[in-house]
Amino acid sequence: MKLVTPAKGTIEISKEKDPELFYLARVGLGGLGVVSEVTLQCVERQELVEHTFISNMKDIKKNHKKLLSENKHVKYLHIPYTDAVVVVTCNPVSKWKGPPKYKPKYTTDEALQHVRDLYKESLEKYRIAAAKSSDDNEPDINELSFTELRDKLLALDPLSKDHVVKINRAEAEFWRKSEGYRVGWSDEILGFDCGGQQWVSENCFPAGTLAKPSLKDLEFIEKLKQLIEKEEIPAPAPIEQRWTARSQSSMSPASSSAEDDIFSWVGIIMYLPTMDARQRKEITEEFFHYRHLTQVELWDKYSAYEHWAKIEVPKDKDELAALKERLRRRFPVDAYNKARKELDPNKILSNNMLEKLFPLSETN
């Protein structure tokens, strides 16, 4: 990796040459330099088979170890206020067997019908059917994708728990009728239509090894869903859960010195389905309440740390102090700040987040 730094100009680092700085810079948060050149180890483009099916937590517990160890990619989409778990696995197409022969039980229209019916019913309930039907710009609901329909449903009453529960149940029904296989290149298959604008908090925490999963990942989800129900949070679907191998990058939330360690990543979500400023403000406040509850109840218990792109710097002084202390327990803050001082002593690359979370003045 070539790193352009304010103090030392362009430096070249690798795992053989200055390994400590190399592994710090791989998740450098922009504070160590500008990466001008990087050598990546690549693999050939792969054609993948994606298998989507519905399960439930009881069966997931039985099959979890097998699902993790036998699939190249796996994720669960948990649907709050239901027992439905959408399982999505992806694996390279077999050179011997080829893609699976599978005929879907339902068409896309049949899978979407329950959601469309709920939308029509909800329009009438919220007494805006007449206004909607007279709006020439209103798209035909038969033309809308599932995520577009979900956004429209949520926009009617995004903070009503009962309304969100109905939408979640309709989503579970949609996935039940969308079970099947899809074949495509990895860049097509591994993407995910996660809907419109949204707030997301994603956490990463250790989950044992492939040979011996700790099952803390499933316990985390069960506790999270219990919390949602107890606090009656209008939590839409999905709660996305996926897994990665450990990272050697020191500042990664999945960093570990143990080669076999695996980490689970869990994302909670709230959508911003309209441009109405008041509604967006109310959703934002509710989302941060939801995030705060998960933080208080779950983060420390499961050693969960937020994805760097999702961290919000607290305005409250005590909360900020607690977050800084928490980050220090997980990450090599002194080593990171030492590297910042050497490579960028005048803070040319710094920003508000770095200054608040990793103040150089507090480093020994």
Automatic annotation (TrEMBL):
<dbReference type="InterPro" id="IPR007173">
    <property type="entry name" value="ALO_C"/>
</dbReference>
<feature type="domain" description="D-arabinono-1,4-lactone oxidase C-terminal">
    <location>
        <begin position="38"/>
        <end position="356"/>
    </location>
</feature>
<dbReference type="GO" id="GO:0016633">
    <property type="term" value="F:galactonolactone dehydrogenase activity"/>
</dbReference>
<dbReference type="InterPro" id="IPR010029">
    <property type="entry name" value="GL_DH"/>
</dbReference>
<dbReference type="InterPro" id="IPR036318">
    <property type="entry name" value="FAD-bd_PCMH-like_sf"/>
</dbReference>
<protein>
    <recommendedName>
        <fullName>D-arabinono-1,4-lactone oxidase C-terminal domain-containing protein</fullName>
    </recommendedName>
</protein>
<dbReference type="InterPro" id="IPR016169">
    <property type="entry name" value="FAD-bd_PCMH_sub2"/>
</dbReference>
<dbReference type="Pfam" id="PF04030">
    <property type="entry name" value="ALO"/>
</dbReference>
<keyword id="KW-0560">Oxidoreductase</keyword>
<dbReference type="InterPro" id="IPR010031">
    <property type="entry name" value="FAD_lactone_oxidase-like"/>
</dbReference>
<comment type="pathway">
    <text>Cofactor biosynthesis; L-ascorbate biosynthesis.</text>
</comment>
<dbReference type="GO" id="GO:0016020">
    <property type="term" value="C:membrane"/>
</dbReference>
<dbReference type="GO" id="GO:0003885">
    <property type="term" value="F:D-arabinono-1,4-lactone oxidase activity"/>
</dbReference>
<dbReference type="GO" id="GO:0050660">
    <property type="term" value="F:flavin adenine dinucleotide binding"/>
</dbReference>
